[in-house]
Amino acid sequence: MTTKICVAIRSFHHPNLLWGLPPSTRRIALPESRVLYTVLRSPHIDKKSREQFKMEVKKQYLVIKTQPHELQKKFFWLKRQRIFGAQYELLFSCKTRLDKEKLQGLL
Questions:
Q1: Can you name a GO cellular component term (predicted)?
Q2: What is the pTM (predicted TM-score) of this model?
C-alpha cells in the first residue's frame, strides 16, 4: 500500500520554503503565468504617458510518496514548513490491495 500526498503551491515569488525535502519527494515545476497591466497617468493631456505593472505567479507541484503508518510524520513536516505568501492545496491518493481471503469470506 502506498499513499501519495500532492501539494500544489502558487506564489508571487519563488518559494524557498522547501528545505530538507524527504528523499521520496518529486518536485514538478509548472508553467509560470504573467499578467501585464497598463495604466494611463494622465488620460486628458498626454496619452503617451503610461505606466506598466506586471504580476507573475510561480507554481510548483510536490508529490510525496509515503507509507500509511508515516502519514502523521509527513503532515507534521508539512505543517512546520511555514509557507509564507503562498497558496497551497493538499491532495491525497491512496491505493489499497484487497485480500482474496477476506473478500471470499464476505461473499
A1: ribonucleoprotein complex
A2: 0.62
Distance between CA atoms of 23 and 40, rounded to whole angstroms? 51
* Distance between CA atoms of residues 50 and 42, nearest Å: 8
Burial of 82 (0-12, 13-18, 19+ CB in 10 A): exposed
C-alpha dihedral (66, 64, 18, 23), degrees to nearest 10: 60
Q: What are the pLDDT digits (tens) for 11-63? A: 887 665 556 677 778 888 888 899 999 988 877 776 778 899 998 888 888 88
Find out whether 89 and 30 touch, Cβ atoms under 8 Å.
no
* Burial (CB count <10 Å: 0-12, 13-18, 19+), residue 9: buried
Cell of 31: 508553467
- 102: cell is 477476506
